[in-house]
Design a protein that fits this description.
By secondary structure, the chain is α+β, with helices and mostly antiparallel strands. It has four helices and six strands, in the order ααβββαβαββ. The longest helix is centred in the middle third of the chain and has 17 residues.
Length: 181
C-alpha cells in the first residue's frame, strides 16, 4: 500500500514564498495517520523551504530594533513582534509615563502587524515587561482600551532593568490572517 500523502493545503497569503504549511502536497506523512498534515510536512522540509516560511518584517516607517533583533518575524502561521516605545528615525524613547509608553508600544505592534496584513484582532498572546509592577493599573488601562474585546492571553512581568531605561516593553504573537478556523 502506498504511503499516505499530505492533502491539507492551508493558504498563507502574507508569506509569498510559501503557499501552505505543507509546501509539497505530495510529501508523505511521517508517523501515524492521525498526525496533522501541518506537523507531518514541516518537520521534513529542507532548509531552503523552511526559510521560505520565515520572513523578517522590516520597513523604514517601523520603529527600529535597539539591538541585534528584529521588530517582527513571520514564522507561519504566526507573527512574532517585539516592541519598545522607540521613535522611527530618531531611535529616541517616546513617552515619559507607563501609559504613554504602553500606548506607543501597542500602536507600534499594530504597525508591524499591518505589514503582513494582520491586525490587533489577530493577536493571541502578549507578554508585557514593566520596570515597576506598581504601574500595572496604568498599563492595564491602556491595554484594555487598545484591545477592547477578545483579549489575547497575557502575562505581565516586572523587569527592573529594561534597555534604554524603558518603562515598558511588549512582545505579541498573532496568527496570520486568512487561515481556516
Amino acid at each position: 500500500m502506498p504511503p499516505k500523502r499530505c492533502s491539507s493545503i492551508l493558504p498563507l497569503p502574507a508569506v509569498s514564498a510559501a503557499r501552505a504549511f505543507c509546501l509539497d502536497p505530495g510529501t508523505p506523512l511521517c508517523g501515524t495517520e492521525r498526525r496533522t498534515a501541518e506537523r507531518a510536512c514541516t518537520w521534513r522540509l529542507p532548509d531552503a523551504r523552511r526559510q521560505a516560511i520565515k520572513r523578517i518584517i522590516a520597513a523604514p516607517h517601523l520603529p527600529p530594533a535597539v539591538g541585534p533583533y528584529s521588530a517582527g518575524v513571520v514564522a507561519a502561521p504566526f507573527v512574532f513582534v517585539a516592541q519598545g516605545p522607540i521613535a522611527p528615525g530618531s531611535g529616541e524613547v517616546v513617552g515619559a509615563t507607563v501609559a504613554e509608553q504602553a500606548s506607543r508600544v501597542l500602536e507600534d505592534i499594530e504597525l508591524v502587524l499591518r505589514e503582513v496584513g494582520a491586525t490587533r484582532a489577530d493577536v493571541v498572546k502578549v507578554t508585557v515587561y514593566l520596570a515597576d509592577i506598581d504601574q500595572y493599573a496604568a498599563m492595564n488601562e491602556v491595554y484594555r482600551d487598545f484591545f477592547r474585546t477578545s483579549f489575547p492571553s497575557r502575562i505581565v512581568i516586572e523587569a527592573k532593568r529594561l534597555p534604554l531605561r524603558l518603562l515598558v516593553e511588549m512582545e505579541a504573537v498573532a496568527l496570520l490572517p486568512g487561515l481556516p478556523a
